[in-house]
Amino acid sequence: MSDGTGAGPGARARSRLTVLSGPSGVGKSSVLAELRRRDPDLHFSVSVTTRKPRPGEVDGVHYHFVDLAEFGKMVDNGKLLEHAEFAGNRYGTPREPVEAALAAGRPSLLEIELQGARQVRAAMPEARLVMLAPPSWEDLVERLTGRGTEDPAVVARRLEIAREELAAEPEFDEVVVNADVRSAATRLLDLVVGPPPVAR
């Protein structure tokens, strides 16, 4: 895996769960899109959410869109590996696809919020937690305010949440700085298919 574009058979034999978290605006979607392009065989978990689809989002591809009642049933029946509320909506990770991928020896990647990452750490201590961070706080502020299309109160709340998320960095096994999407994707792919983290 010296070229950062894939993994050899030895690495592929390892089954590991990697959890990626990071503040809004840090570029998680762009980095994950690059990862999918480089290694289509990785298992990318599709979250369940109660929020409405945004333009261009496809049910079952970007998210599984459900109502509050269905989400509640999934929680009650233990079908979610983790679940959390964010910005007034509920999100969760279906347990069965992740467990099936790991049982088949496929590295699995979850992109979830801090609350969910903490739940996964408690449930699966062997999971590797990775934070995607901005090059600087000023850079993140620019990314979130530069759009100029959202209510200032919403942006302020996102910045408040982002500060809390970045303060949790010591809880993570690794930090990947997203100064460049391709470089960040290379580093993340190394972590997803590389050796397991050192036990704490």
TrEMBL record:
Q: Which UniProt keywords apply?
A: ATP-binding, Cytoplasm, Kinase, Nucleotide-binding, Transferase
Q: Where in the cell is it found?
A: Cytoplasm
- MF-aspect GO terms: ATP binding; GMP kinase activity
Q: What does it catalyze?
A: GMP + ATP = GDP + ADP
Tell me the PROSITE patterns matching this sequence. GUANYLATE_KINASE_1, GUANYLATE_KINASE_2
Region (Disordered) residue spans: 1-29
Q: Which SUPFAM superfamilies match?
A: P-loop containing nucleoside triphosphate hydrolases
Sum up the protein's function in the record's words: Essential for recycling GMP and indirectly, cGMP.
Record-given protein name: Guanylate kinase
